[in-house]
Every structure is written in C-alpha cells, then in structure tokens.
Recover the amino acids of this structure.
C-alpha cells in the first residue's frame, strides 16, 4: 500500500486526461495501490450526480446515453460516461453505426468515456464500477452516466450505487413491459419509453402508468411481489415520471434531463441523498473487506494449496466445507 | 456447524419432496447448517448433467426450458429445474399464459422445480444456485436445467457452473444476433434459434453460422475480441450446433436434447468434464472462503462498528481504505 505516485492523482485531478485514464485503470484493478489512490481521492468525492441508465438489450439505451451526454454537455455540464453494458458502443461490443454516432463525444475535454470489462474484476463488477465512478467524481465531472444492461444481479447492484436510476423500455420487443419482467421497475426513478415513433409506444407508456398506479394488479398480470416492492420504493413521495423519447434524433431527451434533475432535488429535499450515500458506502465497505480478507488468506496459505484442495474435492476425497475449515480453522 | 438434522438429509435423498424443499431452502441461505448439509451430500454429487439455458428476455427460453423438461421426462429421465431468470414463469415473474403452461410439470415426482430469488443471497447468486444444484444432484436428478436471463455477470457465472450451456436466440428482437451483443456466444455449447416460425429465423441461424465459422470478421460486424474468445472456446474440437425450435409446440426440442447429450459425450470423451468440474470447484471454494472470512470478521468486530464506519466515511471523516485497515489491521 502507498506506492501510488501522488503526482498521478494530482495530475488526474488537474484535468490531465492521460493521468485520469491511468488512474482509472489503477482503481479498476483493485490493487493495493488502488486503495491508496482512492483514499487520497476521497475528500474530493460526493459532489457528482451519479445516474444509472439501464434496460433490456434492444431498447436503445446506448443511443439514449450518448444523447443525454451530448445534451447535458450542451447545457454546460461536464459528463462522465461509464459503460458496463457489454452491448454498448462504448464497450466495443457494438455494430458499426453505433460507433460512428459515438464520435460526437470524442475530443471534448468536458466529456470522459470509460467502458468496463464485464468480467474478470476480482472484487466484482459493481465494486470496480464504483471505484471508477469515484475517480470521475473526484475529477469534478458534474454528472456521471452509468450504462448497464440491467438484467442481472451485478447490474442491479451497479444501479443501486446510482443516485438516480433511469430504466429504458421500447415498444415491440416482444413483451408489453420488459422492465417489469426483468424486475427493473422497482429500481426506476425515471422511466423512458424510447423509440416512441414506433407502433405501440403509447400503449407501452400506458401500461407502465397503470403498473405504477397499481391498477394492473386487478388485471392479474403483475405479481404481488412486484407491486409491494414498487410501493415500498415509492413511499418517499416520488412517483417515477414516464418520458417518451426518440433518442436517435434527440426528441424528448431534454425531458429526461429535467426528470433526472427533479429527482436529484427530491433526494436532497427529503434527506434521501445522505441515506443512499451511507447505504452505498456500507455495501462497498463489505465488498472491499471480502476481497481484502481473501487476498490476505491466499497470501498466507498459498494459491497452490487452494488448487490442490479443489482437485481433492473434485475426486471426492474431501468436501468443500471440510476444505474451508482446513484453510481458515474452525 | 453440525446442527442440521441428519434425518433431513436422509429424508430428502430418499425422495421426500418436502424434506428436499426444506433442504434446498437451507443451503440457499448459506448458513453454517448449510455447510454441514452440503458436506454430508458431497459424496453423492457429481452424477447429474447440469445444463444452463440462457438468452435475452423475449427469446422464449422459459418456454423452451418447460418443453425440455417435459420431453426429457417423457424420455424417462428425472429432471430438476432451477430458474434464476427473474422473468421466468418459474420465478413468479411471468404473465398468466406462462403459468398455465407450467402446470404440465406439476405433480410429477420425477420433476422438481425451484426458483431462485435474484437478489439478497449473501454469497452471491452463483454460489446459492450452485448449492441448490448440488442438492438436486445428490437427490439423484439425471438432468438439471438452470435457466438464467443471461445478460449479467452473475448469470454468466451461473452458466460457467454448468456442464453444457444452451444459448437461446429469437428473430425479430431488434438485433440480428443478440447473443453476440450480450457476449453470450463465447459460452454457448448449443445454440437455439427459437420462434423459428417467425420471419427472420433462417437469417438469424445463418448469421450465427457465419459468426461461428469466423466469416463475419470480414464483414466488419463482429469485434476481434469476440472472435478470439469464441475461437478459444471452440479449440477443443466442439463446434456449437445451431438448432431451430418452436418451443411453444415442441418443434425441434428433441434436436436440442440430442445436441445436449452429444455435448456431454464430448466432455467425457475429451477429458473436459473433469477439468470443468475442478475449475468450478476452485471458484466455488474461493466464493465460500470470501463469505466465511467476512462472517468471521463481522462476528468479531460487530456489525455496529461497520455501520458506524460507513457513516463516518459518508461524512468524509475517514475513507474506505482507512476503515478497512481499522477493521482488519495493516
């Protein structure tokens, strides 16, 4: 610990983009140097508005993130983008057309885009993403957009680390309300029906409206669990607005920006901002502890012993829980 | 540890379904009793064929899982189903039509269905799912189908714990090849184009064929990284077959069953079965260690101290990594 060059942190915070990129790579890898760097950054964090954007594949959320970044930037804000979605153009998993659109953001010093590998993070994707967000926060970006594919637990965890979560739907993807099926409605602070020029957009918005108002329970198409969770999520007096957009030409994106800003005001006004921050930090602390404790154990017993025990478990010479006791004692 | 009634394990293994359900709940919660139960079960595990079924929402993979279970059962096999997909009818997140279809499987003692909560598992979804699979394996189910939504890291982890992974596509979901965009092709052992009666099914199958043969790289529509990973995945002489199905009426499902059985033969014949088992067990061992080490620390320092540190971090009185050092020492 403590081997990170203090100058790297200083340079990154002064706006040196190459230093910032190196610093992000450092914290993404969660080395001991990363811990030192994050400790140094900590006093400067806590100012950015972290906005998660999530939804099923095919809803056009990458295009929406691109357009949100452009329009926020046009309004004078600085914007960080962290793309966790493997299908995002920001992560290189996209088709040619998407890549061309992305160039709009390239070369503007007020925008910083980072894509996250969707696997291989030792402490988990949510933890690595949280670290990257923290660096961008400390570097002074006003809004940080975190794009996730929003169907797995890791993505829900990432969304939970955001102050405001935007859930994106689109008509004609085979389900009336995909977000509901994917369990996403309960984390939505703002709902977007993208591709609003397609048939079925108004109906999709209506269906969401009905679900949010609890009317759908009488139709038998929403499970009680979903509604209970949604009701809990909405007890603090915030009802997720539903915005129709055509991200491809920018239609409705200003409304999304207004809804996101209104949610931020709501969080501050209701005291929820501090509560979310504490809950997020406690979870992060437990994640880091888990990683740190395992690292220390492996340094002590040696990776080879673990591998050997795994082989013996596979051959049914011992079992997993006896092996755990062997490694950590009773 | 060791407080689990030995009779619960015995009863579950003798085919008592209520005991089996209780045992599954026990291991899902990952208590110390769970460890004892899993240790007792271990010698009887390792016989089931664990088949992951994954794909984007809207591909009809739940219907396919339902139909696979029915047709496997009709062929004389016993079948366990573990549904991790929050949109699956098995998890209660489905529309009415899906639920009605599911009844086909109810009341048959040769079928056992378990749905997993998609959040709240202390050691992670993959670990809890692995434990449930282990119980069904020990209880003697021949094939265990694990259904995941297949877009997040947790789901990829679940799939990695399977012997054979079936990736489901469907035409008309807005992308030519959704699995490719979601990074799923690299884990596919069998590819299914479901909803084959819809327009575009043949084209989707063709597109997959091209990608698997590497031809798509010259079209510029597939990133080099995807192809490299896919090539690595296929170096053991297995080329994922592409099967077209209409899961709703059962068309093509026998072909999927044959492809899955052929893959099992391939794993055994090539020695890969043992290799996958060892890799899976090593990962599981690390996961359990991580959970166990944190539990022990929390028991020692008290949860209250962790919460207090989180509050102080939020107020910028200290930082995350200083807090970690406070809790575990340098």
């Amino acid at each position: 610990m403590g081997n990170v060059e203090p100058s790297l942190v200083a340079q990154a915070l002064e706006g040196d983009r190459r230093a910032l990129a190196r610093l992000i790579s450092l914290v993404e890898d969660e080395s001991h140097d990363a811990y030192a760097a994050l400790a140094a950054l900590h006093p400067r964090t806590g100012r950015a508005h972290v906005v998660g954007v999530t939804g099923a594949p095919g809803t056009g959320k990458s295009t929406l993130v691109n357009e949100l970044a452009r329009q926020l930037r046009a309004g004078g804000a600085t914007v960080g983008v962290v793309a966790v979605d493997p299908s995002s153009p920001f992560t290189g998993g996209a088709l040619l057309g998407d890549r061309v659109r992305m160039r709009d953001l390239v070369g503007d010093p007020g925008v910083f885009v980072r894509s996250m590998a969707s696997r291989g993070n030792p402490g988990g994707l949510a933890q690595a993403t949280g670290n990257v967000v923290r660096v961008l926060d400390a570097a002074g970006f006003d809004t940080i957009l975190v794009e996730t594919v929003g169907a797995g637990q890791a993505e829900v965890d990432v969304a939970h680390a955001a102050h405001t979560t935007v859930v994106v739907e689109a008509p004609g993807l085979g389900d009336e309300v995909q977000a509901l099926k994917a369990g996403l409605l309960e984390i939505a602070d703002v709902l977007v029906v993208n591709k609003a020029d397609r048939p079925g957009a108004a109906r999709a918005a209506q269906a969401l409206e009905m679900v949010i108002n609890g009317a759908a329970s009488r139709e038998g198409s929403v499970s009680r669990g979903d509604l209970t969770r949604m009701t809990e999520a909405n007890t603090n007096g915030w009802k997720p607005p539903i915005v129709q957009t055509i991200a491809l030409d920018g239609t409705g994106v200003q409304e999304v920006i207004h809804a996101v800003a209104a949610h931020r005001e709501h969080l501050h006004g209701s005291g929820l901002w501090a509560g979310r921050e504490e809950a997020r930090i406690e979870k992060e602390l437990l994640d880091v502890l888990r990683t740190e404790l395992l690292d220390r154990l492996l340094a002590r017993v040696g990776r080879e012993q673990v591998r050997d025990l795994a082989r013996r478990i596979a051959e049914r010479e011992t079992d997993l829980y006896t092996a755990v006791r062997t490694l950590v004692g009773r």
Chain B touches chain A through 78 residues (CB under 8 Å). The mean pLDDT of chain B is 80. The beta strands of chain B are 49-55, 79-83, 111-115, 143-148, 164-169, 190-193, 242-244.
